[in-house]
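Record 1 of the preview.
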Amino acid sequence: MNDAIETARLQNSLKNPIVALALGFFIPGAGQMYAGSVMWGTIALIATIVCFITIIASPLAFIICLVSLFFGYSCTKKVNDRVLEAASKVG
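->
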């Protein structure tokens, strides 16, 4: 029964990369915040807002959004890898 409890705890601590992509699609930087990188997610959000406000830099805002999506997804994968690695060392 202990293995079932540990497996359930491990599954609860993993983050879904698809959720990170969806969050980042609707709110730039939210995927990074979901993955645990709150500082970089906040920076991406503020930079995107500033670029959207200035019409000249709106292509830059689009690029920041795409980069934010990529980092949100990849950070979530890295967090999951660290959680799985820590669980394998304990178990």
